[in-house]
Amino acid sequence: MVIEPESEEPGSSLWSDARHRLFKNKLAVFGGITVLLIGLVCLLGPLVISYRESDQNLQIAGQAPSAAHWMGTDNLGRDLFVRVLKGGQISMLVGLCATAVSLTIGVLYGTISGYFGGKLDAVMMRFVEIMYAMPFAIFVVLLMVFFGKNFVLLFVAIGAVEWLTMARIIRGQVLSLRQQEFIEAAIALGLPKHRIIFRHLIPNVMGTVIVYATLTIPSVMLLEGVLSFLGLGIQPPRSSWGVLIQEGATAIEEYPWQLLFPAIFFSLTLFSLNFFGDGLRDALDPRASKD
Amino acid sequence: MFRFVAIRTLQAIPVLLIIATMTFFMVHAAPGGPFSKERKVTPEVLRNLEAQYGLDKPLLTQYGNFLWKAVHGDLGPSFKYANRTVSELIGDSFPVSAELGFWAMLIALAIGLPAGILAALKPNSWLDYLPMSVAMLGICIPTFVLGPILALTFGIRLEWFDASGWFSWRDRVLPAITLGFFTAAYIARLTRGGMLDVMNQDFIRTARAKGASEVRVLFYHALRGGLLPVISYLGPAIAAEITGSFVVETIFNVPGLGRYFILSAFNRDYTMVLGTVLFYASIIILLNLVVDVLQVLLNPRLRFD
Hints:
Largest sheet of chain B: none
Number of strands of chain A: 0
Strand content of chain B: under 5%
Number of helices of chain B: 12
Oligomer: heterodimer
Largest interface: A-B, 40 and 51 residues
Strand content of chain A: under 5%
Distance between the termini of chain B: 9 Å
Mean pLDDT of chain B: 81
Number of helices of chain A: 12
Radius of gyration of chain A: 22 Å
Number of strands of chain B: 0
Shape of chain A: elongated
């Protein structure tokens, strides 16, 4: 373990400490490696495989897994392996983009609410409480039905649903950071507010942000899956794991592997991300409750 | 407590108003109308249809009419199901969803609580690892994967239960398990966490020192505190089961409100969509209130304020 020499205050060796704790947690390391591997395979695999996602060949439709088609073919004779990898790219992309949207909203909202405090804070937090009572999944469904078939809208809508918890957590952190000397010093020096927020407050909540980002990605991917399963998410010719699972579910009696392979990839990714996120949380914030 | 309930009920009014307004304008801003899919509708017939349902009036008038009627409990006629009102349709389909949700919750609690308690009593033993691994699986296998697999295995191949419809008890089993599995997994994890926290506290040691039996320590002293995280999860859990029911009801052909909601959204059945959203929102607000009251009643450290 290398400990940075400038570590005077207790917070500054946080990252090396955290790395140490994370690497000791075998499940978390396993989860992280698995996610990386799946991501790499999804990214690079389609470049290596000689089939393309769109290659249809009705003569080989619905084949079982074989040496030529590792996961078999779907009912249009498309190679399932390459479809699963391509679908994985989309699912992960949606997961990352929607999480980025929810993080941006949540972090800004929470920081502003916590930093300015007082009446503004009270109003903003009351608003969050009201939003918690909203049946959000229902709104996402409606949005997708009425304005759907739009890739960007999909992750903006999902992202706009998931920011509430993030905003609450960040606000709590900022409230306690505000009491510390370095922020008081920054205020006393007369630094402009946006500089205090972006240069001093937000970098200090990055640990929490990373943890909850890791835990938000799987829940976002799950929501995308639900929407795609209902026919409201990704539209053809693009496909995601949710779309493939839906196609597999309709063909499950004759071709069970068409459900099995995308389902395994999907569940394994969620599984690994959850373990990795739990491990990160324990590593970066040992006091946080474990559920 | 009466004050708390009264305030929260009053707070629900603006929330419902916001939800109604958002839904109303979203529905009306959407391209395509409820009758645009109907084949060979002459402009005249279309105008008559729109006049019949008040769609020819200015949008704000329609909005005002909708709110006025909704306040009086009249959600209007359905656009798609002729001669049926939205209230009737909800009245028919909600009991189905509620029954499904009830069985799912029962399964979730019956599996989740004992599994979590056992895991917490013998942490880091196989009694801990086994149920917790299954729980992690339950959290990561989505309902839309579990549903078809259960339907194929136990419905079609083994023919133990029915995989489609809603007639006898044989139809209830698979959808309820599918819907309840995730919640069971989550409850197991929460119970384990909550019980572990409580079992390490001083008052448990005191109780043991006084010679209380393990059974009494567990059920009389520990459970009340240990279950608090579970109680606070029940609100979100119910919301999750409502969303989950869209998927589960679709997979197993259950004529519940979730499926009606998806269908009416696809069909642009404006009144039905608006009515269902308002209904769902009221249910969620009501259940959240019940959960909050329960939480305070069980935890003396919290107060109503």
